[in-house]
Each structure stands twice: as C-alpha cells, then as structure tokens.
Design brief:
Layout lengths: L5 H4 L6 E10 L3 E8 L3 E10 L7 E11 L1 E4 L2 E10 L10 E10 L7 E2 L17 E3 L9 E5 L14 H8 L10 E4 L11 H15 L5 E2 L4 E2 L10 H7 L19 H12 L11 H4 L3 H19 L1 H9 L3 E3 L14 H8 L2 H22 L9 H14 L5 H11 L13 E4 L2 E4 L10 E4 L3 E5 L8 E2 L14 H14 L8 E6 L7 H13 L15 H14 L2 E6 L6 E9 L6 E7 L8 H6 L12 E7 L2 E5 L13 E7 L6 E4 L3 H7 L7 H6 L2 H4 L10 E7 L5 E9 L7 E9 L4
Parallel strand pairs: 10-11, 11-14, 18-20, 20-21, 21-23
Antiparallel strand pairs: 1-2, 2-6, 3-4, 3-7, 4-6, 5-6, 7-8, 7-9, 10-28, 12-13, 15-16, 16-19, 17-18, 22-23, 22-26, 24-25, 24-26, 27-30, 28-29, 29-30
InterPro entries: Metallo-depent_PP-like, PhoD-like_sf
Protein name: PhoD-like phosphatase
C-alpha cells in the first residue's frame, strides 16, 4: 500500500503545522493564530515599513508573547496578541509587517523565526515576512472579501486562492489592497467528508493527540479507526441521531465524530503540511469495483484541492480574517429545529460529536475572532486550561467533560428524560446554556463602519407547543436579538462617523423563489431535514418581521453579507413603516460557494435562468403579533392595517470582465485540457455562461463602496471562466443604498 501514516512522517515535518492566520486586527492590537507540533513560547512582533509600502522592515511597534496550549501530544496551538510597546497605534494608509519567533519549552534548542519554522514562503515581498493593512480613512477605498462553503471534494476548483492573486496584485498599496476577509460559514465540512480524507483524518487526529478517543455508544464505546470511511451512515443516524444522511443520502458515510478528526480537518483545510504524499488507491481499499471507483473519484477531487493550499496558507497570513460557523462546521442541520436538538443531544454519541466539533471550533476559529474572551479570568481562558487536562485524561474524565460542555454552551441533560434541558425565552424555547458560556457572536468596528457577526445557530428560538418540534425556528431568540443586534447598534447609534453598518448573517434573508416553494412543500409533508427547511429566515415570517424591525429601529440602511446557499447574488430590500415617511434600505450580498458548486447552481448560473427571472415581490408586516403576508395581487385585502411594508428586487448581474488573464498557476493546473465532447464545448460557451441574476460557480466576493456620487455598494464576484480556463473573471452587482 502506497501510504505512510503520520507517525512515520511527523519528525521530518516543519514546526508549523498550519498558519499563521492573521485574525483580529485593530489600531491597538494584532492577533495571530498558529498550530505547532511542539510546545513553544511564541513572540509576535509588528513592524513599520519604509514609506509605509511594505518593502523594507523598520521599527518594532507592537509585541506580545504567549505559550501554546497542548491540544495533544503533537499538537500545540495559540492565538497570540501583540499590543503597542511605546503608545504608538496602527494607522490607515500603511503596510505593516509581522514576525513570529518560537522557543521550544521542553527541550534545549534554538529559537526559530517564522521563516525557519515554515517550508513555504508566506510573503508578497522579498524580505519574506507577511504583511497587512488597516481599513482606509476614506470608505470609498475600502475593500472587504467574503466567502463561504468550502468543501475539498466540492465540484470545481476552490475559489479562495483567487484572493491570493488579488492581494499580491496590490500588496504595496494600502488603499487598493484588500483590507479584511469574512468567512461566513461552513469553513469546514464535518459531514459529507470524502472517504480518502476521513482515512487520513483519523490517522492524523489520533497521532497528533497521542491517544484514541473512546466514542460513547448507547451501551458500549468505539474507537474512531473502527468506524471505517464510507461505513458511518448507520452509526451516525442510529447512535448519534445525526440527520446528514436523511433522507437516504450518502453525506454521513464518512462523518467526523472524534475530537482528533475535527482538529485534523482544520489543519488540512488551511495547510498542505500534513497531507500525505500518497493515498492508497481504490483497489487497495475496496474489492468492490464500484466502491473503488468512487474512492478514486473523490481522491482526484482532493488532489485539486491540495494543489492550491499553499496559496490559501499565504493569503490567510496576510489579511485580517474573521470567521463564524454555520451548520457544516459541526454537522448538517446543526440545531436546525427542536427535533434535531432532542434527537442528537439526547444520544451520547450525538452529544459527543457536537462537543468535539464545538471545542475544535473554539480553538481553531473563535479564539482569534474573540481573543478578549480568552484572556485572564474569562471563560475562554478557563476553557483553555481544561484542554490539556482533557487530553491527559484521554477523553475519559466526566468532570472535565461537563465543564468543557458548559463553557461551549451545551445544555445539561435532564436526568429524568435523558434529553437536553431547555428554558423559555418569550414565546420560544431555547437551549438552557450556562451564563458562563462563550459568546460566539462579535462585532468588528473601525472609525467609519461596523460589522455585526451574528450567531444564528446556538441562540435559536424554538416555537412552543402546540407547534411541532420540526417547526421552523427563529434564528435568533428574543434574548439573542437584544444581545447580538440591539445592544451593539445602540452603542454607536449617535456616532456620526459611522457611514455603513454591515451584518454577517450566515444564512440568507432572501432566497430564490424556487427554494421557498420547495421548502414550503417539504414542510407541509413534515420532511424538513433533506432541504434545510427552516434554516433561513424565509419560513419563520414572524422572526423575519422582528429582524427587520430591530435593524431599522436604529439604522436607515443595512448591508447583509451572507453565504450558505451555493450561489452569489445581490438583493435590494425596501422597507417602510406605515407611520413613517423615511424609506429603509437593506442590501443582501451573497457569496457562496468557495468550493461546493452543484449541478443546480451551475444551471442557474447560465442564461437558462433568464427564462424564469426572479419577480419583484411585496409583503405587509404586522408587529403585534409579528406576522408577514405577501401581497400577491392588487385586489388582496387585509382586515388589519399593516404596520409596515417591504419589497425585494433582485439586482442584475453585469456581464463579466477579465480580472486576471493567463494565470500561470491555472495554466499548470489545467495543462490546456480540451473539451471532452460537443456537449462540454457548448456548456462552456461564454454566451451561455453569462447569466443575468446569480453566479452559480465557485466564487469569491469583494465588497466596495461608492459614496462620492451616489451611495452605492458594489459586490464583485470572482470566478473561473469555463470558456477561458486560465482566466479569472468577475461579475459586478451595483446597488443603490438610497431611495430610487
């Protein structure tokens, strides 16, 4: 078998297993995340550059030091924060550099610099150091990237590496260089895992931890390696209660379950370091020819994903990156409705799987998002203290497990029913989480704009009886509305310098009408797990009415950045209270997927969708009780006068323009492959691919503003041109933020 387990390769690998990833970056502090194979004391230093253009390293102005946290025997991670050493702050209009140094703790060896601890170059400059810029003083120069849904075996080439080329293009220009990246959900896929990938993840996870987890079943336990790739559907459904395989789907056949597997997934999604040089072939794994063929097909997709990982690792080191989970970061349909919570958290394996996923999320994503919650005395710091102890117990200490669950926000189990405890919040049930649990939502602010990153997963409101347990939830409970939206907006309500309010909503407020129809039909049939019924704002109309009311009570215009849906688009929503003259505007900019295009999204990407364009639609809104009704004809009459009205209009996708031509790495990747047949040739035709509404191929979004003449917000969606495989193109959406 042409396969070498990690234990055979670990010694030869560099110190850095993944990262560095530039995380929360403000004028007073800079946070960098990194994963290592040895325990180290890590020092972060930030430097000015000559003329502020990034070319020559000058004085150290920020510094910070921290020890790594032992996740396992061979996995040590940290997010280290640097602050000013002389009262200086970071300023817009300058390119800054940073360096890391690593002093091993348990052995006498020399300190390593960042370049010595890596095998690849992470810089856009000759000096070899990563760099970054702060958002500009003028909002017209602001450029924000967004993306979501990145699955290794997803159809098409990963779009995230495009960002590497865009940063490189203007690396020394603080105004034209991209300023921030928001990854809006499904950064990893815990379900729908390729069989060869799980084969590697189990080995890598167990090796890095230094122990094999005993996954609890109803009456026994099992080690991860006993749950073979492609063979997990039944245990996922029956023992864990997971719904990724419902109805009769294969997405759970290699579902992640162990702590080590979740940790290894992040490392392999963000770096090429731990990937094996060779995988076993399908014939070496399966005697069945059909299964062997499927294995080889998935392996081919993984090879494409690996090809661009060095570009991904570089871009993540050079742009402040903010993340928030959606369902696939833990499992498909995660906390979708009350039924899911009861069936999964009420089973030992289901609860352990969710806890493993959330613990990995806290270490690999959240720590860098919210470093202030991981400082002395805070819940995050207390969680970090438990991580090495959990590993030392090899995942077998129930007291530590209970404490970890509390900080992660998992509800306790009712000893009488064996089900997760809930409590009432207004007209909804919510999970009974600890007051000390980490707050996953957060806010990013600069002098002239703000970004509210919503957690629409763990603070959902589930309708109380007589509603069924499969009823669509409110993605935010009453308390969540207050904590995540009302309070943050109130803090800056009187700040006249704030020119734009952005909200990161992992799932869409507005979807294609066909999706609404399908989900409404499935809900009537009681089949909610196959098509994410209730996972957007479209089916719980009272929740949507509340969301719009809460947003527009404090802001005239709101920009929503979203993902999840596997296509990119722009929608303009107009909202007006019956008692007000002012018109409120909400613009939804969607970018999805980075790497998970499907046949149906590739179809709506084309001119074929133009035969069935999205209609202009209107709704009436009532506040007490919250209710929404679509106005389907002028003759439709309602007994009560509505409190507000809103309408939606889909923005036209402009013809594509070439962003980057004859890209060298794309040439190498494609090797000038020709179309296989006449149908493929027709499908790749430029005219056909120039649809007028959505981008259904893998895409990356870049947001910018034009407030000089009109108050416009612009989204450029970058994608690979099928008719010119070596070109990267972009489609533009321009939306007016003022009254038409």
């Amino acid at each position: 078998m042409s396969w070498s387990p990690l234990s055979y390769r670990l010694e030869e690998l560099p110190l850095i297993l993944a990262g560095p990833i530039l995380k929360k970056t403000e004028k007073h502090s800079v946070t960098v995340w990194v994963a290592l194979k040895k325990a180290c004391t890590v020092k972060l230093q930030v430097y000015t550059t000559q003329d502020g253009r990034g070319n020559n390293q000058q004085a150290v102005i920020f510094a910070g030091i921290r020890e790594t946290v032992a996740v396992g025997q061979h996995l040590h991670i940290l997010a280290v924060t640097a602050k000013s050493i002389n009262g200086t702050i970071l300023e817009s209009g300058n390119v800054y550099l940073y360096d890391l140094s690593f002093q091993p703790i348990e052995e006498e060896s020399e300190k390593l610099t960042l370049r010595q601890a890596l095998e690849i170059n992470l810089s856009y400059f000759e000096h070899g150091l990563p760099s970054f810029v702060l958002p500009p003083q003028n909002i017209n120069h602001l450029r924000i990237a967004q993306g979501s849904c990145r699955k290794p075996q997803g159809e098409g080439l990963d779009a995230l590496p495009i960002l590497d080329d865009l940063i490189k293009q203007y690396a020394d220009n603080p105004n034209l260089r991209l300023h921030q990246l928001f990854l809006t959900g499904d950064q990893v896929y815990a379900d729908d895992v390729a069989d060869p990938l799980l084969f590697a993840l189990t080995d890598i996870g167990d090796t890095l931890l230094g122990w094999e987890e005993s996954l609890p079943l109803a009456s026994s336990s099992v080690h991860p390696k006993q749950l073979k790739p492609g063979k997990r559907s039944q245990v996922a459904k029956v023992q864990a209660g997971l719904t990724a395989g419902l109805p009769k789907k294969i997405e759970a056949k290699s579902h992640l379950m162990s702590y080590g597997e979740y940790c290894a997934t992040y490392l392999l999604f963000w770096s090429s370091t731990l990937w094996p040089h060779q995988f076993p072939s399908g014939q070496e794994i399966h005697q069945d020819s059909k299964l062997a063929k499927q294995w080889d097909k998935e392996l081919k997709s993984l090879t494409s994903f690996i090809y661009t990982l060095n570009k991904v690792q570089r871009l993540l080191a050079n742009i402040p990156t903010y993340m928030i989970f959606d369902d696939h970061d833990i499992s498909d349909d995660w906390y979708l409705n009350q039924e899911w919570c009861l069936r999964v958290l009420g089973k030992p394996l289901g609860r352990r799987t969710v806890q493993n996923g959330l613990l990995a999320y806290s270490l690999f994503q959240a720590w860098g998002n919210i470093p202030e919650q991981f400082t002395n005395g805070e819940s995050g710091e207390k969680l970090l203290e438990l991580v090495p102890k959990w590993s030392q117990s090899q995942g077998n200490d129930p007291i530590i497990e209970k404490s970890i669950a509390s900080y992660l926000g998992l509800p306790p189990i009712d000893p009488k029913t064996g089900l997760p405890q809930m409590r009432q919040d207004g007209d909804y049930f919510i999970l009974d989480t600890s007051a000390h649990a980490l707050k996953w939502h957060y806010t990013v602010r600069t002098h002239n704009y703000e970004v509210l990153i919503l957690n629409t997963r763990t603070q959902r409101g589930y309708p109380v009886p007589p509603a069924k347990t499969i009823a669509p939830p409110s993605l935010l409970s009453p308390t969540a509305f207050e904590q995540q939206i009302q309070k943050p907006l109130q803090q800056t309500k009187d700040n006249k310098e704030i020119q734009a309010t952005l909200v990161i909503a992992p799932t869409n407020l507005v979807s294609l009408q066909l999706i609404d129809w399908v989900q409404e039909r499935e809900l009537k049939k009681g089949k909610v797990f196959g098509n994410d019924v209730g996972d957007g704002w479209n089916l719980n109309e009272s929740a949507l009415a509340t969301l719009l009311k809460v947003l527009f009570e404090q802001r005239q215009q709101v920009i929503v950045l979203s993902g999840d849906i596997h296509y990119g688009s722009a929608v303009r929503l107009e909202y007006q209270k019956s008692s007000a003259q002012n018109l409120n505007i909400l613009v939804q900019m969607t970018s999805s997927s980075l790497s998970n295009a499907e046949l149906k999204t590739r179809i709506v990407h084309t001119k074929l969708k133009s035969l069935f364009p999205e209609a202009y639609r209107k709704w009436y809104v009532w506040f007490h009780p919250a209710e929404v009704k679509e106005i389907k004809s002028a003759k439709k009459q309602f007994l009560d006068t509505p409190d507000a009205m809103y309408s939606i209009k889909w923005i036209k996708r402009q013809p594509s323009h070439i962003a980057l031509k004859d890209v060298t790495w794309l040439k190498s990747y494609h090797q000038m492959r020709r179309a296989k047949n006449w149908l493929s040739f027709i499908w790749k035709n430029k005219w056909l691919q120039e649809g007028t509404e959505v981008v259904g191929l893998n895409n990356l979004g870049v947001i910018s503003f034009n407030i000089a003449e009109n108050t416009d917000i612009i989204q450029d969606l970058y994608w690979y041109a099928p008719w010119k495989p070596n070109n990267i193109v972009f489609s533009r959406y321009t939306v007016l933020l003022e009254k038409l």
